[in-house]
Amino acid sequence: MTALTADQIARVKATAPVLAELGTTITTHFYKRMFAHHPELKNLFNQAHQQSGGQSEALARAVYAYAANIDNLGALGGAVTHIAHKHASLNIRAEHYPIVGENLLASISEVLGDAIDQPTLDAWAAAYGQLAGILIGAEQALYDGAAWSGFRPFVVMRKEMESEEITSFYLKPSDGGKVCDFAPGQYISVKRFVKEIGVDQPRQYSLSDAPNGQWLRISVKRERPADLPAGHISNGLHDGVEVGSIVEVSAPMGEFSLDRSKTTPVVLMSGGVGITPMVAMLASLVGKGSARRVVFAHACRHGGVHAFRHWLNEVVATHPNVSRAVFYETARAADLQGTDFDFLGRMDWAQFVGSALLPDADYYVCGPVRFMSAQVAALHAAGIPPERIHTEIFGSGTLG
Q1: Which part of the chain is the FAD-binding FR-type domain (predicted)?
Q2: What pTM, to 2 d.p., does this model score?
Q3: Which residues carry out catalysis?
Q4: Does 52 fall in a domain?
């Protein structure tokens, strides 16, 4: 991989303010252009995110970050790792990068017109080649270490409701092969054909049980009709996938995972369906007989959508090292009759900081964007070092 020249670095960095202003315009143009020339790539991209604009905004932020840090790529290490895991889960390969590069550079030229000259476009071509090389290398390393390549058929061996909105699917290889190990907190991609748009669509779901050698479990929230097309896959799984059905599954990926080598305390903080990777983490800890101090903090709307509550209650009752802090935003009459929650209202750090602010603890946070922002801000305000805060954005941005 040829290093960028000082002039190329300067030209790319100089375009960062333009990308901050027009980045989403460029990336929206890019996706439309690429799909027009290569409609087969629609199978690799979440079309719901395309329609909502979320994918264009995410790409615009990534391109801006790359331009702004072109002279300090070390600052992008975490972002590169995150993107590589997402790409590997979707089976994005080296041969896709030239197509993306061609259409991205053409989009920059077509949107900016005379505002960008050829030497600057050439600098961006070189910069894209550099970034593609970094990602291809990182993704190849993930493919080399993956349990299998591409998508593999799994059969649904069991289907179980966890709440009014969340249903678990227990999956095992349809060929009778072994069920792989994974790091608690990781996810798989599930690919389904969506007849409404005529293409296969992948969705990523956290694994919601500890590695056990018998099955992989995902727990899927049914999206509301108002959330369509985002809910095509979740509703299709709930309504169209029964015991004995076959689904296509990618190997586990994701850098958000429990560090099983540590013995220090763990605080697991989740909102809505963000509970799923936390269940895998807690199940892994108690399954191994870990003596680590664990606080399981969860927030949801009410008891009807509180998944895994009976399991959590049993774990807390039988493991003295595990405690809970469950928040219901609003309690129904039925909720007040039981003992499934601890606090009323949204998760408030101050209400359980005494039990959760543990020396040397690692804090794992997963849920909707607003929930995540509030909890991470509270952790920072409490003086928790950034390296002990681990995050994963999950779901559509609404508290489940």
Answers
A1: 149-259
A2: 0.92
A3: 97, 139
A4: yes
